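User: Fold both of these, please.

Assistant: Here is the first one.
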Amino acid sequence: MQTTYIETQKISFQDFKNQILEDYKLGRISREMSYLGRREVLTGKAKFGIFGDGKELPQLAMAKVFRNGDFRSGYYRDQTFALSVNALTVESFFAQLYADTSVEREPASAGRQMNGHFATRSLHEDGSWKNLMAQKNISSDISPTAGQMPRLLGLAQASKIYKSVQFEGSEKFSNNGNEIAFGTIGDASTAEGLFWETLNAACALQVPMIVSIWDDGYGISVPTKNQRAKADISEMLSGFQRKEGENQGCEIIQVKAWDYPALLDAYARAEHFARTESVPVVVHVIEVTQPQGHSTSGSHERYKNEERLSWEADFDGLVKFREWILNYSIEIEGKEEVIATAEELDAIDDEAKKTVKAGQKLAWENYQKTISDLSKAVLPLVENLKGQNAEIENYITHFNKLVSKAKKDIFHLVRMSLLATRGTNTPERNQLIQKYNEILEVEKDNYSSHLYSQSQWKAENVKEIKPVYSDSSEDVDGRVVVRNNFDKIFEKYPETLVFGEDAGNIGDVNQGLEGMQEKYGEVRVADTGIREATILGQGIGMAMRGLRPIAEIQYLDYILYCLQGMSDDLATVQYRTKGGQKAPVIIRTRGHRLEGVWHSGSPMAGILNLSKGILVLVPRNLTKAAGFYNTMLQSDDPAVIVECLNGYRLKEKQPDNLGEFTVPVGKIEVTKEGKDVTLVTYGSTWRIVMEAAEELEKLGISSEVIDVQSLIPFDLTNEIAESVKKTNRLVVIDEDVEGGTSAFILQQILEKQKAFRYLDSDPLTIAANDHRPAYASDGDYFSKPSADDMVEKIYAMFNETNPQKYPAIF
C-alpha cells in the first residue's frame, strides 16, 4: 500500500524552507500568468480569458498529495495545480490562450479549447495507452458547470474495481487500486444536480475521491445565498458526514483559502481518508478571493461593494502567504531560523514576472510564426495571379493592411483569388490550387480530426465474423442469445464490467444478464441507484483508466438524463484532446415499439445530432446486438447500442460461436431483395417493414428492404445508393418524429451518396407522429408507423405514376 503525505513528512528545516519558497515562487508565477493573460486578451491578442488567480494556495496544497496514477477531473481555474504537477508550463498556458494548434506546444487540446482547460495525454500518437502509473493524470476539462462530476465518480470507482480486477496490462492503470480521483468545482456550481448526484453515488459506493469546492462567495455575479438552500455548503452537506462504524457517507473538511498551514493539514487528512480507507472527502475551501473577477468578459467591481473588494485585497492568498513567511521563525539549536526576508521574496516576485514574460513571448512568437510561415508560402502564389484579375491587387492590399493576421485571413485571400480567376487554367493558378489543397489538409487535421478514433482499433477496422449455425443450434428467446453472449464476453475480457439499474441481482429487467452476477461477482456485474447521469459518468471515468465498462441505461427514454454528459463529455473526449485521451464506453439501452408515453419514445434525432463522436448502433434483433457488443469490445470508439425492447421473448436461432461473431459498423444488410422500391429502416420497425413488404408483393410491388443497422457510421460503402439505382424509388421508414432520424438518413442517401440521380419519384419518409405514443397496442398503432400506413403510402407512390395499374385505394 502506498504511504500518504502525512506519513512521509519528516524533513529537515532546510528542506521545509525550500518547499515553502518553491510554493511561493510557483504561486507568484501562476498569479503573473493570470495578470499577463488578462492583458493579452484586453489588448486583442487572445479571444477570451478565465484564470485561477486567488486559488493558488489550496491548489499548491492539493498538488502535494497528488501522486503518479492519480486522476483529476476539474474546473477551469486550476492552473496552479496543473503547474504544480508538471501538466502545464508557462509556454503551454499562453499557447492555449492564443489557440495554438500545435500538440507539442499546447498538449492539452491543441488549441481546441479555451484557456484554463487542462489535460494530460494518456495515449501515444498511435492511440495506444501510455503507462498512466508513470505520470500524474488530468482528464480533459469541460466548461459546462458540474459536468466534470459524473466522470469523476468513474475515475474514483476504477480504483475500487482494480482492487479485485487484474488483466494483462492492468499495471499501466493501477497499483492495486491505491489511486485517488481528485475533483474541483466552483461553489456556485454545487447548485447543479450533477454535483449532488455524483456525491450521493460516491458516498453510497465508498470510492476514493476528494472533491475541492472553491468558495469565493459568488457564481459570477450572484451571491452564494441565492444559489443554495444554505450559504454554507458544508452545513448543507452535514447529513452526508459518515458516522463511526458505518460504511456510508463522506468526510467533510472546511479550510480557509489563505491559511497555508491549515491547507497542508486539510489535504494531508483528505488524502489519508481517501487513499487508506477508500472514503470520499469534500474539502470546502472558503474565503477564496478572485482578484480579477470572473473572466475577461466583465468586471467584478460591478457587483462587489467596496467592503468586499477591500477584504479581498487584504485576504488575497498570496498576500497572506507572504505575511506568514515573513512572520515565521523557529529556534534550532539556539539559533533563530527564518524562511525568507522581504528582500528575498521581492526577488522571487521579480523573477516570477520575468519567467512569465519570457514564456509568454516565446508562446506568442511560436504562434505567430505558424501564421507568418503560412503567409510566406501562400502570398507569392497569390501575387503571381495579379495579372489575371485586377481585383487581386485589391485583395492583397487589404490583406497587407491587416494589423493582426489569422489563418482565416490567409485562407480568405486564397479563396477570393481563386474565385476571381475562375474559368482560367494557368500554371500559376494551378500552383495556387495545389498549395491551397495542401494547407487545407493540414488545417482539417488541426481543427476537425479525431472526432472518432483514428487508431488501428477504430470500430471500422473490426472484421466481420458471421454467426455460425449447425443442426444443433437451438431456437431460444432473444434474451438468451444476448445473455449467453455476455457470459462469453465476461469470460474472455476480464476488464469488462456492466452496471445499471437492476443489472445485477435480477439480471436486468429483461433477463439479458440472468445469472451473470452470481457467476462473475458484484464488482463486474453491479446494480446502481436510479441516477442515469452518473451511470454514464461511471463508464466514462472507468474507460479513461483502461477498463471496458458497459453502462446500462434501462430504457432509451431515460437516456435523456445522461444526454448532456454524452454530448459535452463522452462525444468530445478524443476531439477536444486531439487524440490525447479516449473513453471507449459502451452504453447499453433498449427501446422502440413498446407502449406508453414513458417507455416507447424514440429520441434518436437528439442522440444523432447531439452526440457526434459516439457510434450509434441500432440492431434489429438480439443476435445482431450481441454481435455489436463483440465488435465494440475490440474497438476503442465509444458507442450506444439500442437493443429491441420487444425482441427479448421472440425466438432466434442461437449461434454456435457466441462471443466471437461480429457485426461490422457502417454496414447495411439487404434483408429482402426487390426491384421496384427501396425501403430503408432499422431496429424494431424492421419487422413491420418486412410485413408491409410482403403485403406490397401481393399488390404487385417488389420491395427491397434494407436494415441500416448502424446510424453512425452510416453505410460506409454506399450500398443503399446502389439499391436505389436499381429500384429508382426510395422510402425511409422510422419511428422517430418527423424530421428526425428519417431526415438524417435521407440526407445521407440523397446528398452524400448522390442517390437523387436515380429517382423516378419523390423520396418518401414515413415517420411517427410528433407526440409520444399513447398507451397500449392501439396507442402504438395510431402513433407510430403501422404496416397499414406503410402499405398505403408506398402504394400511393405507384398510383401517382401509373394510376391504371395501381388504382387509388381511397
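And the second sequence with its predicted structure:
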Amino acid sequence: MGTTRPTTSARRRAWRPVLAAVLSTGLLATSWQAFSAEAATGPAGSGAGPLTARLSGDGAARAHDGDPDTYAKGSAAHWVQADLGATRRLDRVELALPGKAQQVQLQGSVNGRDFVELSDSRARQGHVTLRLDGAPVRYVRVAGAQRVGELSLFPATSGDTAPPGAPRNVRLDGATLRWEQVPGASGYDVYADGRLRAGLPATATRWQDTTAPGGTTHRTTYTVRARDAAGNQSPDGRTATRTVAAGTGSSRAAFTPSPAKPAPQPRRAGARATTGATMPYTTVEAESGAIGGGAQVVGPNRRIGDVAGEASGRKAVTLKQTGQYVEFTTPVETNTLVTRFSIPDAPGGGGTNAKLNVYVNGQKTKPFDLTSRYAWLYGPEAAPVNDPGAGPARHIYDEAQLDLGRTVPAGSKVRLQKDADSPSTYAVDFVDFEKAAAAPNPDRRAFVEPAGFGHQDVQNALDRARMDTTGTIKGVYLPPGDYRTSSKFQVYLKPVKVIGAGPWFTRFHAPAGQQNTDVGFRAADGADGSTFAGFAYFGNYTSRIDGPGKVFDFQHISGITIENIWAEHMVCLYWGADTDRMTIRNNRIRNTFADGLNMTNGSSDNLVTDNEARATGDDSFALFSALDSGGGEQTHNVYENLTAKLTWRAAGLAVYGGQLNTFRNVRVVDTLVYSGVTISSLDFGIPMNGFGPGRTTFENLGIERAGGHFWNGQTFPGIWLYSASKPFRAIRVNGATITDPTYHGIMFQTNYVGQQPQNPVQDTELSDVTVSGAKKSGDEYNERSGFGVWANEAAGGPAVGQAAFHRLTLRDNAQNIRNTTSTFKITVD
C-alpha cells in the first residue's frame, strides 16, 4: 500500500526541537519525559501527521528542518536518533538520504539501551519509506548513515495506538516499590537503573526488590511503565531511589499477584516482527553473496547430514574446484571475520584440517585455519558418536574466526576462495562482520592482572583479589592474550569482578592435545554478586558428556552477572541450579554439545537477555523446574531478546514447568530435528514442578523453518505443547509467527502411561498467532505433515484437554487445522 509524503510545513511542526541543548551524540536518558508524543496534526493513530519526538545526533536539528539541502551527520558508530517519549506503535518511518547510496539500518528500542533491528542493513538513497507494521518502539535510530534529512515517524493507523498513562504515586516502602493501577493497562514493567527487572500483570501494584549489591553500598533508581496489550508503553512514572547496604537482602525479588481476575485484553493489531537478540556483529548469508568460478548455491532441503539441510536458510555455497569463490560486500566497518563452514571428515573420523583463502578488495590476506575435528557425528540420533561406521552423519558444520589485522571499511569486498593451495572442498553457510576493540583495565589500582597466561597465573590473581583486606581491589583484569586452562577456576568467600578485554582479545583455550576437558568457573560460598565479562572460552569437546563441560557451573548462588562471553566447543555456557537474580546478557553461544543455557532447581528472578545461540546440541535456552538439586518453585524469570539458530538436537527455547515466568521477543530459526519452542510438563523421571497455578507467558515469538523428526520418527512442530507427567495449565502465548515449518506449525500432544493419559492441557490460550507455509513434506513422514494446527491423535494416544485461539491466522498450509480426536477441543474466535 502506497503512502503520501507529508508536507514540508507539517514535517517542520512535527520535528521542531523541544530541547535544543540536548542535541548531541549518544544515548538519551530513558527517564526523560518532558513532552507529549502526540501526532503533529490530529489525534494519535489518525495517520494525519508524524509524531513529535526529540532528536539526538551531530546537527540533529537539521534532520527535520524542512530544508532538503541540510542534514544531520551520522556514521556506523554515531547515529541519528529520535525519542518519542513513550513507546508507540509505528506504521512507518520516512527519511531522506541525500547524495550517493548509504548503508543504512533502522533500529529500535523501548529503553534506549537494548536495540533491535527494524529493517535490514543495505544501501539506500533518496526518499526512503520503511514499513514497521505496528512495531512498538520508543527510540528509533538511523544507524550507518552519513547524512540523514527529513526524518518522520508515523503512528500505526489501526488497532490500539495510544500509550497508556504513566503510573502515578510511584513510591518506595522499604524494599517494596508501589504505584497506582493505570486504567487500560495490561501490565507493568519495572526498571532498575534503566535495566528491565520485572514484567508484571495488570493486577500488580507493587514489587519487592530485596537484592543485595555485593560488597558495596549501592543506590538503585527505579521507574515503572504501564503497557497495554498492543505493545504501547507509557512514559516513565516518577522515579524512586533506594540505597541498599552492602551484603543485605535475601535470595529473592518477589511479586505476589492479586487474586483479582485480570481485565480482558483488547485485540492486538500489527504486532511487530520478532528480531531476537541485538548482537555486535552483522551476519550475511553465503547465498546472498556473489559467486564465481563455478561455485554453486545448493539447497534448499531439510536433510540431516546434508550441507544445505544443515545450513542457515537451508542453503549454502559449495567450493569444490580451484578458483571458485563467494564474495561479500561488507555492510559495516569490520576488522574481524567469522565463517560457518563444512569440510570433510577423515575416513576413520577425528576430522581434517584445511585452509581457506581470504581476499579483501582483491588483496590476499591471512587465511582461515579450518578443522572438522569438532563436527561430524554419526549413528544413533539421540547419542551420536565420532565413528563413521556407526551410521548416517549429522552435525557437519563448525565455525572459524579471523582477526583481519586492520579495519575494512563498509562497502568493501571480502572473498573466500578455494585456491590451488587449498586441496579440501568447502561449504560456506554465512559470515559475520564485526569491528572489535580491546577494552583496557578499568582501574589499575582496583583490578589486579595475572603475571602470565597460564591457568595458575589466573588463579593466583583471583586469590589475590579474594584475600585483599584493604578494600581497594575489586577484581581481576585479564589483558588481551591466549590463556591456557585445563580445569575450573574457583571464586569464593567474596564477590569478585573478572573482566577481560573482550571476547576477541581475552581468550581461554582448553588443551589442544586433549578432548572433553572440563574448564570454566565455579563460584560458591560468598561469591554472590560477582561479575564475569569480556572473554571467550574455546573448549575441546568433540562429543556430549553429561555432567562436566559447562563454562559456568553454578549452584546455590545469586546476584551474578555474566556478560559478553563467547563460548564454543563446550557442553554448555551456563547451568544454574538454585541460582537467583542472575543477569546473563550479550553472550554468544556456539557449537555446544548440550544446552546453551539452562535454569533449574528453583532458579528465580533471573534476567536472560540479548544472547544468541548457534548450533547447540540440546535446547538453546531452557528453563527446567526440577527439584533434584535443591530449590523450590521457579518463578519470575524473564528470558527476552534471544536468538536461537541451527539447534541440532532439541529446541531453540524449551520450558519445562514453573510459573510466573516470561519469555518474550524470541527468534528461533532452522532447528534441525525438533520443535522451535517446546512447552512441556514431562519430568524425565526427575522430581519437578508442573505449570501453574501462576501463568507462564510467551510473547512475540518468531519461528522460521523449525521442526523435524526425532525419537524414532516422531515429527515435531514450530511450537510443541506437551502435557505429560506434571500439570499443564496457565499457558499464554501472546503473539507468535510460525513460518515454513518442516512438518506442522503447532502441535498438542499428551503423554500416556499404560494406555492411560497423564495430565490434560488446561487453561491454555494462544492469541495473535500466525502459521503459514506448512506444506506436505514429501518424505517418509508425509502423512503427518502439512498441518497448521494439529491435535496429535497418535504418538501413544490422542491429545487430551482443550486450548483456545484468539485471532488465529492460517494461510498457505496444506491443512489448516487437524483434529480427529474426541478428547481434545480446539476453540477459535
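Confidence is low (pLDDT under 50) at residues 1-48, 246-272.
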